[in-house]
Amino acid sequence: MTKLFNDKDFWKTAVKLAVPVALQNLLTSSFTLADTLLVSNLGTVALSSVGMMGQWSWLMNMILVGFCSATSVFISQFWGVKDLKKIRHIGGISILFAVFVSILFTAVSLAFPEGVVKIFNSDKEVIATGAEYLRVVAFSFVPIAITNILAAILRAVENVKLPMWVSAFTTVLNIFLDYCMIFGKFGFDKMGIRGAALATVISAWLGVVLIIIISLAQKNILVKNSKEYFRFSAEEFKGYIIKATPVVLNEGMWGGGTFVYNVIFANMGYEYFSAITILRSFENIAFVIFIGICSASSVMIGKSIGQGEIERGLLDSKRFMVIVPSLSVLVSVLIILLRTQLVSVFNMGNNISETTLNTAVTLMLIYAIAFPFRMMPYLEVVSIFRSGGDTITGAKYELICLWALSVPVTALSVYVFKMPFIAAFVVMYIFEDIPKNILCIKYYFSKKWIKPVTKQGIEGLEKFKQKSGDK
Prior knowledge:
mainly alpha, 83% helix, globular
């Protein structure tokens, strides 16, 4: 074990890549937490409404994550052999798809705001409040999509600081505008929940502008020879579709499954969904360090495999397979110890019901126990398998564990067996995470996920097979 981690270059690279990404996501999650805290002062209905609409935009984000992940699969390997032309072509294809998806979600949100809210809850007050929020926040979807793709391109070429600093600025601005616009401070009108939405729109568009302006100053890959982004060939487009489709389906189906979960739970009562909204805020915080680690893992493994250094890619994957479960257990312990104090923060204005608060404390305990079992498949599917070039197997496992097992069993537990909310929540975790862990661990050790997309990588894999005696 000591020999496995006695590598200064590994730690130097991992920290350099992981920390800025983790900090960026911590800032984003801190905004979500601050936004939720500020909105909680408006009461349980407002908190529930914003949480529901957050799940709608989160579904869009999951589809975008699919395109970002597919982009990273290609770019990290092309970065290994410094093929900048192909990197730009893949970036251009990704931008087109991301903009299309975001425009689609914007159009649906503006055309049917009440209809979107009704998916989650039929309470008239919740529908009115949620629709008011959605009509404004929908205008943030396009800039969020563009920012996500540009950040994915920069991270894949190891430029992780620019997205972090832009996120830092826009997060601080967003929190400030939230405070001003929700409560009418510093000369702003008091707009309540509509103010929270408008603050998100302003900061989202500013994020895109800042990335472009700073990129122009740096003359980085986003702006240097930028005309090449949309000069991709039909063959490159086809290759991207083949690799990206399973990833987008993977993330989209996972996002869709979570969306269905939230619809089920939201229709059990908006107080329960307010508790889920509180949980999600802390869930994002707990998750940030693993986003950074998996981002670093993806770049490091993908770069090695793209260069044909198969053994080095495998060695790094083994290291991350130890790091992630170790850290996830530590995070679980912290959540268990601090869950009551964390939830109590949301009731500073004494506007949240006891049912919501008590339920949130219990959900935090359940989540803490499940946390390590959720992080391992995340590392394997999102980072190791995809960076190795295998985008299909993870999608298959998601479909089986989520849609064939967990979603139908959770629905049956609520609508047929009439289980209480907490019991149904536990059922959701058990039937999704346990079988997925078994499938992913078995596939990892098979090494079948190593599927290079570069010439050097393919040649390196053949040499590795000959050396190891694998067929």
